[in-house]
Structures are given as C-alpha cells and as structure tokens.
C-alpha cells in the first residue's frame, strides 16, 4: 500500500473518536463524438479529439461516455488545534473507473495567515490546476487541452500557503518543493511513445502569487525542476546527459464585470527550447444560462520537429440546479504540427452534466 494511503488510514483510524470528518464529492457524466477529423494515418491514429492530455481522454467517431466521465470523493479530518488531513479519490471512465488517490496530505495552520502542508497534492502550475477534475468549477466542458497538456500533474512534497490582504487587494501565495516519479506515465506510455515510459520530475521548487481586487484577478507562477525519463527501462539521453532542467512560467488574468467576463492564461516552459501555450475565453451570464467562446494554442519548437495545434470552442452552460450544471460544447482543432502530429484536425461535440455534493 502506498505511503499516502497508509498516512490517511492511520490518521482516520486513530482519530475517529475525536476528529471531525467531512465528506464532499464531485462527478461529471459526459458524452461526445468526433463529427469529422483527419486522424494521423502515418501513426495509425483514427479521427480523434484529444480532450484531456494528462489522462489521454479521447473521443472518436463513435459516441462514448467514458473519456471524461468521472466521480471523486474528498475526505477531510479536522483533528483540532490547526491540524487536519485530506484525501481525494477519483475514478475515471477512461481508466475503467478504477479508483486512485489523487491527493493525500496533512495541513497545519500556523496562524490565521500561514498554513504548512505535506504529502501528495496537485502540481499548481495552472490557474485551474487545483480543481482540474471538478468540472462544475469552470464554465467550459473542460480546461482547454492545448493549455493543459503536461504529462505530470501531481507531486509529493511540502508547501507553505499564505492568505491575507494588502490594502484593498486580496493576496494568496504558495511556495512548494518536491518530486514526482510516475513509473508508467499514461500520456507518454499510451499515446506518444506507445511503450512503457517512466517520467521523473525531481528537485521541484516553485511559487504562486495571486492578487484580486473588485473585477480583476491576477496569478503569476514559476517552477524549476530536473527531468529524467526511461523508455522500456532504458534511460533517455539528451545531448548525452540522462537529465535536463526545465523552467515554467505562467500568468493568468481574469476580468469579471458581473455578467460579462474574460478569462486568459499564458504559459511558457523552457526545456530544450521554448514551449508556449495560451488561452483566452469570454462569456456572458444570462441568469442561469452562460454562452461562451474560447481559443487555445500550443507551440513547441524542437530539433527538426514542430508541435503546433490550436482549438476554437463555443458552448453554453445551464445551471439548472444549485449543485449541477448542464453543458454543451463544440470544438474545432487544427493540428499544424510538422511530422510530430498529435491527433490531427478534428471537429467534435460533447454534452455533459457536472455536479458537486
């Protein structure tokens, strides 16, 4: 049994007599299909809409409910005097609904402003990282795939959180360190290389700063790490070295004027060249109905290869219940990659219900 499971079970078993246990959850039941697409014939890829890169959730021309449907349960135990423990288990349709621990960490509130945490958490690279799986938390069917393409999205380590204010501005910050060793990385093993691939990100050190005031919210982030990789048990070499260093930079700016809103995010990964992604989205709230548009883009220059793709999406969200939303989205993907085509061009439609409980 993994360390995070033992940690949670030990705390809950020993503390059931005096811990306050809170249980919450979320679920998404989504269906979709490719309306038309080119696929990537040279790699045997049929017309495919890759909706979620980290979990390799892809739709084909056959209607399917499994790629993005999921259910998650979060359990937290308040042990008193500032100490708590949190665990999150998620079962995904793309993994035949096998349940796995996504989060498992202990928190200690030092005072009203500072909290220290240790364990397994979501890697906070992006604005929507912390609630990436909670579809109800954002307006679209999913976080834009071109922007959320990373093969590693969790880490095990320690972080320090701050929450407070400066004048009229709300301020939150997070400094973290740790590593992630994924012995069978799904994106690299199942999709890109199609062979067992172990992906290691170690010596992670990063920080996040968020500022909010009235209709404006800003978030900046930076992380550096060392990458090692093994394919079929053999180390991957880059210029004769078995590791390479990466640096990630991110900026999100959100503007919310009540009914009308604009969301944006811009990211760069410096790793053997630059990998740049961005997204911009706008929508308008008509009471419970919110139509929106979104555009996202991915550009990476490599040695002889260029990975380049973008997505235009239009959709609508209907909050038909205080804890549930019905969404429908049309996506058009253009894959302009040279030799390194990902899934080809596609047009797809998806429909789903997101709930929290």
TrEMBL record:
Keyword Signal listed: yes
Lineage of origin: Bacteria, Pseudomonadati, Pseudomonadota, Gammaproteobacteria, Alteromonadales
Keyword Phosphoprotein attached: no
UniProt xrefs under Pfam families: Porin_4
Listed name of the protein: Porin
All copies of domain Porin, residue ranges: 11-354
InterPro entries according to UniProt: Gram_neg_porin_domain, Porin_dom_sf
Keywords for the protein's UniProt record, in alphabetical order: Signal
